[in-house]
Amino acid sequence: MNKKITGLILAFLLAVGFAVPVGAARPAMDASIPAMDASLDWLLEATPNGPQVGGVVGEWAVRALARAGRINADDPWAAAWLADLESVLSEIDAGLTPPSLRRWTDYQRITLALDELGLNSANHHGHNLIEPFRWFVPTSHRHAINRTVLVDIYALITLETVGISSRLYLLSLYNAQRADGTWSLNPAQPASVFDIDVTAMALQAIAPHYRRGDERAARTVNLALDWLEAQTFRDAESTAQMIIALTLLGDDYADRAAYYVQVLLQWFNPELGGFIRDTHPNRINALATVQAAYALTVYHAR
After folding, report:
1. Do 106 and 54 form a contact (C-beta atoms < 8 A)?
2. Prediction pTM value
3. What is the distance between the alpha carbons of residues 209 and 203, in angstroms, rounded to a whole number?
4. How far apart are CA 248 and CA 156, in angstroms?
5. How far apart, in whole angstroms, are the C-alpha atoms of residue 184 and residue 177?
6. Are the C-beta atoms of residues 34 and 60 closer than 8 Å to each other?
7. What are the tens digits of pLDDT across the range 14-46?
8. Is the dihedral of CA 105, 257, 170, 227 positive or negative?
């Protein structure tokens, strides 16, 4: 099919918010792989001296580049990030609270990046980065900055990654799902387009339990997907999170993941070599590019 016609059809589907057809065609490899490769190149070029801990092009970039086989722990670029991590951890040792390591999600993000590099986050130069969130603490007993559902989502993702089970985080996540199938940073407010990212991330956390045949996980996933697939995806970031979720749910969702890869590519600018936002179409958006790059590495590594 002519690419222009394909693009117009896709734009129409997005505009009206049609649900994803189960038989959606897998995107052509010659479209998504160059977009992934160009985005990974841009991540390296945007931070020639290495990324900083907590930066936009930080742990997400480490994860994407490591998963794609572009870097390892001995690579100078990764070594620069590890050196910055050592500097941050030295502040912790001195009794300080560095801005990039205040929340449990900061520890979770760093743990996931270390894991992609093949490093042990439970004993990284004498620091146990899993300890702050290793044991479930009821939301009401947490510091205010750790009360969002993202803490539970990424605790599950991180602990699963390092081989630790935590049923209490899973139950907390099940209980946080709203009747319409969504999760939200503001659960007292009506569902909105901003819940797309959070709901897709929650599915990523539940995916291993779904693949193991957990009946409650299946009901939870189906309810969330019913809502997600009725939404209009308006940016690369939310689409990237959906691709990751569907890919992690397994082969039964391959066609749906492929559809959203095609959706994602509408924000890729081949001349710029990265992903954009509709509000600024003439420049690469770092957050969109790093999340899209990671999603594509997950998708192509399945």
Report:
1. yes
2. 0.90
3. 10
4. 14
5. 8
6. no
7. 443 444 444 444 444 568 999 999 999 999 999
8. positive
What is the C-alpha separation between 32 and 272, in angstroms, rounded? Answer: 15
Encoded amino acid at 116, one letter:
E
Query: What is the phi-psi region of residue 268: left when phi exceeds 0, alpha when psi lies from -120 to 50, beta otherwise?
Result: beta
118 is written with which tokens? 């093949």
Token readout for 300 is: 């192509």
- In the structure encoding, which two tokens stand for residue 62, read together? 């480490």
Cβ within 8 Å of residue 144, ≥6 positions away: none
The burial of 199, by beta-carbon neighbours within 10 Å (0-12 exposed, 13-18 middle, 19 or more buried), is given as: buried
Q: Whole-angstrom Cα distance, residue 111 to residue 117?
A: 10
What is the residue-wise DSSP string for the chain? --HHHHHHHHHHHHHHTPPPPTTPPPPPHHHHHHHHHHHHHHHHHH-TT-PPTTSTTSHHHHHHHHHTTS--TTSHHHHHHHHHHHHHHHHHHTT---GGGSSHHHHHHHHHHHHHTT--GGGBTTB-TTHHHHS---GGGS-GGG-SHHHHHHHHHHHHHTT---HHHHHHHHHH--TTS---SSTTSPP-TTHHHHHHHHHHHHHHHHHTT-HHHHHHHHHHHHHHTTSPP-SHHHHHHHHHHHHHH-GGGHHHHHHHHHHHGGGEETTTTEE-BTTBTTS--HHHHHHHHHHHHHHHT-
pLDDT tens-digit readout, 113-148 = 999 999 999 999 999 999 999 999 999 999 999 999
Say which residue the tokens 């066609």 belong to.
255
Q: Are 77 and 58 in contact (CB under 8 A)?
A: no
Q: Which amino acid is at 171?
A: L
Chain-centroid distance of CA 65 in Å reads 14
